[in-house]
Design goal:
The structure is a single chain. This protein is mainly α. It is about 80% helix and about 0% strand. The longest helix is centred in the C-terminal third of the chain and has 31 residues. The radius of gyration is 19 Å and the shape is globular. Keywords: Membrane, Transmembrane, Transmembrane helix. This is G-protein coupled receptors family 1 profile domain-containing protein. Pfam families: 7TM_GPCR_Srbc (PF10316).
Amino acid sequence: MSSELIYGAIATGVALINIPVIAIIITSPALKNCKELLLVGGICAVDTFLALANAVCIVDRLLSFPADSGDKIIQMDCFFRYYVVAFFYANLLVGIMTLLVSIERFIAVFFPLQYLVSYTRNKGVLMMLGLTCLSDLCLLFIPDLIINFNFFELQAYHMLFYHASLFKTVVNLFIYTFRHNELRKQVLAKLLKCC
């Protein structure tokens, strides 16, 4: 139960940190020229949606199944919950955003004159995309394969893999925020203005 509270707090924290970043990307006049930040904002929005779904799931579990409760419920009652539908759409959106970023990078690489992006900019964005794909592979895709197909008889560790998928949004937040100088400057400017 304490681990659920910790991961619920992490999921809520990710959502609360991502929301101002999304607002800065959308509203800041200094970032209007940075087209790639629109996709980063989309990825942050998807991560926020996934984090909120995780937080709501944990709150619902804690309220529906108290620690001392020995009540048994059938599997269908667990499966047909509203947050399962949210997980379904959130995971689809993660894939769609990855596809959109891949298409955008494809255009940048194969049609550079139309895209007008310098080599150093491409290198940094490709590094960001590579780190994002690596975190998706290690923290989302491989654990899902292990859970669904019981590779190496590791299905018993499903809670560990669930926690790894929650941690993915934290990793992505740091990748996106610390990669872009413009975004980093705007976030720091807004934070310093508030203090």
